[in-house]
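Pipeline run #58 for the internal structure catalog. This entry was flagged by the ingest filter as a single-chain record with no existing model, so it goes straight to prediction. Upstream metadata was stripped on purpose; only the residue string is passed forward. Reviewer on rotation: M.T. Logging verbosity set to normal.
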Amino acid sequence: MNYDDEIRDLQARVLRELAQRKFRQKRKPLRFERSDDLISLLKRLRVQTTPPKTSLSSFLRRFRTGLGLKLEDVATALNIPADFLKKFESSATLPWTLPTSMMAQVACLYRLHIVAIEQLVNHSYQIACLSKMIGDRATAVTIISNWLREVRLDLQRRDERDLSQ
């Protein structure tokens, strides 16, 4: 592939992405009478094992908006305040500061495999290091490692084998 082919390929990918964004913006949010209806819809989704290279909070926001889900509906299904979810989706909170049970609950709702969580948390860590949100990297790595282990154990306690193995 020569330089001109690479440029054309890149332009085509950019145009596809712009078209997808425009489509997502036009989509009306889905409405749910009960949070069980939302949970039922999401349980039918394929398990997410290979997320894009982004932070966990960005992934969760894109996933929710890509499906046309309202923040309030997801917060209700997770049984957490909408303000907390909004704060988490805006990257104002580092993922490993969340209670592990809450992360396991999010993983179950979004069908997010532990390997995908590990990748997203790694990207979150790298972004936090670059933005100087982390002072002591060695301590952060230890905290993250312990937190991920606890999330995995929580998923196993919930008998979510398709998310934890």
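catalog note: The two ends are 39 Å apart (CA to CA).
catalog note: The longest helix spans residues 3-26.
status: ready for reviewer M.T.
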